[in-house]
Amino acid sequence: MPVNLGLRWRKKPQKSGGGWQAIARLMTLGAIIAGALVVSGGPASAATLTDVSWSVDNNATGATGVTYTWSFTTLTAGTVTSVTFTVPAGTTGTPTISSVAGLGAGTVALDTGTNTVTYTVTTPAAVAAGVPVFVQFGGFTNTDTPSPPPLNSTVTTQATGPATIDTGTSADVNFGDSNTAVTILLGRSLIFTNDTPAFTLQPVPGTPAGPVAAKTVTLTVQTNAGGGYTLAAAMAPDPTFVQQESTAGSATLTTNRFAAQATLTPSSTSGATLSAPYTADKYVGYDPTTPQTIVTATAGTDGGFDTLTLNNQIAVDFSQPSGAFHGNIVYTVTPTYT
């Protein structure tokens, strides 16, 4: 899933006297998932979420320490401040966060008066339409009331207010001592998340060796691709300002280069590893034409996540004119289903 980024250079006029009369005021690197238009704010009216599902890992009535899992796909772009999930009357416990993908970090709470679980995003951010969201909370105690009737869960994404963005209802879950909860996942699945849709670096020159400015971007991959996947990235930089590091990797960050160090936390099953240029904390630039492979996995993540952290850095010196550099990092995840 590629992320296409535009690129242009604005030359700013220099005052007399030479040297850095003004630092590079703005360097913006945007990273957005392909096909997704990110906008802020909530919609005028609610729409229906798609692919809404809810499952429990123990459906026995009164069971404790139960994990509830929800997933859905956003239909309307908006700034999500919270998401609510209805649960059966009589559900208790103090929920804890096991896993969240597609939303920012946050907190979770259960209101037993309204039978509603609320995930509140700590720093609300724009979420595009078509983004798959996965949340998993532990610590629930199931209702003591057995089915029938079977029970579903209503999921609602909310903007400030709160104002409803989208809402949708899951399939039914049965609760009872004579039932066994079964979840069967079929088909090809790939969830890719990027926690940083854009960032700005503003290095301030202090010595001829040049200052360094950095920003960390975290990517996650979850897939059932039996043959694994590759994750690559490319960026078409303006050659007048930013040059890439050697694709073999560099032990130090070269002045007037934009490059990244990579750190990988693989799931227990994927066999994911960093490609050779990124090992030993080396700096590697984003190739302007051919995506540079960063991660190679040999199997699926089996419900877990592979987490890639890219420590993007720029070093500049007095040779650079004032101005603004704009670029886009393009990420490509290619699964192999076998």
Order of helices and strands: EEEEEEEEEEEEEEEEEEEEE
Strand percentage, roughly? over 45%
Query: What integer value in Å does the Rg equal?
Result: 23 Å
Helix segment tally = 0
Report the span from N to C terminus. Answer: 19 Å
Number of domains: 2
Low-confidence stretches are: 1-44
**DSSP strand tally:** 21
* Biggest pleated-sheet summary: 7 strands, mixed
Characteristic terms for this protein:
Immunoglobulin-like, mainly beta, 6-stranded mixed beta sheet, disordered N terminus, elongated, 2 domains, 338 residues, 0% helix, 7-stranded mixed beta sheet, single chain
Short description:
By secondary structure, this protein is an all-beta fold. The protein has strands at 8-11, 26-30, 47-48, 50-56, 66-73, 78-86, 92-101, 106-111, 116-127, 132-141, 154-159, 163-169, 190-194, 198-201, 212-223, 229-235, 257-265, 273-274, 292-297, 306-315, 323-335.
Overall description:
With 338 residues, the protein is mostly beta strands. It folds into 2 domains: 8-31 and 196-335, no CATH class; 47-169, Immunoglobulin-like (Sandwich), CATH 2.60.40. 0% of the residues lie in helices and 46% in strands. The chain contains no helices and 21 strands. The protein has strands at 8-11, 26-30, 47-48, 50-56, 66-73, 78-86, 92-101, 106-111, 116-127, 132-141, 154-159, 163-169, 190-194, 198-201, 212-223, 229-235, 257-265, 273-274, 292-297, 306-315, 323-335. Strands 1, 2, 14, 16, 18, 19 and 21 form a 7-stranded mixed β-sheet that branches. β8 (106-111) and β9 (116-127) form a beta hairpin. The two termini are 19 Å apart. Residues 1-44 have low confidence and may be disordered.
